[in-house]
Amino acid sequence: MNTVPEYKFCPVCGGSLNASVLKSGEPSRLVCSSCGFVFYQDPKLAACSIVEVDRRIILLQRSVQPQKGKWVMPGGFVDRGEEVKAAAMRETEEECGIKTRIKDLLGIYSYPGRVVVVSVYLAEYVSGALRAADESMDMMLVTPEEIPWNDLAFPSTVDALKDYVARKKTNSLNREDAKDAKKEQ
Ligand SMILES: [Zn+2]
User: Fold this and answer.
1) How confident is the model at residue 2 (pLDDT cuts 50, 70, 90)?
2) Is residue 1's pLDDT more than 50?
3) Lesser CB count within 10 Å: N end or C end of the chain?
4) What domains are defined for the chain?
5) Quick check: helix, strand or coil at residue 81?
6) Ligand 1 centroid distance, CA of 19 (Å)
7) What is the phi-psi region of residue 54: left when phi exceeds 0, alpha when psi lies from -120 to 50, beta otherwise?
8) How remote is the CA of residue 125 from the centroid of ligand 1, in Å?
9) Which of 54-58, 99-103, 179-183 has the lowest average pLDDT?
10) pLDDT digit string (tens) for 64-81?
11) Which value, in Å, is the radius of gyration of the alpha carbons in the chain?
C-alpha cells in the first residue's frame, strides 16, 4: 500500500520523465523532457470507520497483502470526486454488508515517507446483516478491552484505535462527573 513504482514515461505524451527540483526547498518533481508536464506524486487518501455496534466495534482480518492476517477497521481508498464520508460508508458496506451513519471525524493519520493518508471516522450501525467480504477473511466485534493490539495491520490502525479508546475513557469520565454533579445538587 505504501510503495509506488518509479514512473518513467509522461502520461500525456509518452516522453521520458526526469526528476528535477522546480522550487528550492521542495522535493524534486517528475518533469517530462518533451512537453514539460509535471507529474506531481500526491498522497493517497484512505477513509476508514470505527463502527460501533452496541458496545463493540468491528474489526476485519485482511485476506490480502499487505499485512495479510492482521486486523483493521473497515476502509479503503477514496475515489477521485467522491466525498470522503461517502467513501468511508461505501467501504464499510462493501466489506461488512452493513449501512452505517457517520457520527464524527476521529482523526487524520499520516507518517513521514508514507504515501497513504488515513482519515478515520466514528460511525454507528444502521442496517444490514454483518458479514466479512471483499478483502477480509474474518470479522469480529470487540470491546475496547478486547482490541488485539499486537495483531493490528497498520500504524494508523493502532493510532486511531488508541485515540478511540482515549476518547471513550474521557466521555465516560465526563458522564461520571455529570452524575456526581447531579448527586451533589
Ligand atoms: Zn510529456
Assistant:
1) very low
2) no
3) C
4) 1-41 (2.20.70), 44-170 (3.90.79.10)
5) coil
6) 13
7) left
8) 48
9) 179-183
10) 898 999 999 999 999 999
11) 21
Span 108-121, average pLDDT? 96
Burial of residue 110 (CB within 10 Å: 0-12, 13-18, 19+) is middle
Helix or strand holding residue 77 (H, E): strand 75-77
11: region left, alpha or beta (phi > 0 left; psi from -120 to 50 alpha): alpha
Q: Grid coordinates standing for 142?
A: 470487540
Q: How far is CA 53 from the centre of its chain?
A: 19
State residue 125's pLDDT score: 96
Confidence at residue 176, expressed as pLDDT on a 0 to 100 scale: 76
Residue 171 has pLDDT above 70, yes or no: yes
Cβ atoms of 109 and 156 within 8 Å: the answer is yes
Q: How far is the CA of 1 from the centre of ligand 1 (A)?
A: 27
Q: How far is the CA of 31 from the centre of ligand 1 (A)?
A: 8
Give the type of residue at 71. W
| Helix H or strand E encompassing 161 | helix 155-184
* 42 Cα to the center of ligand 1, angstroms: 18
Q: Residue 72 pairs with which residues in a beta bridge? A: 60
pTM: 0.86
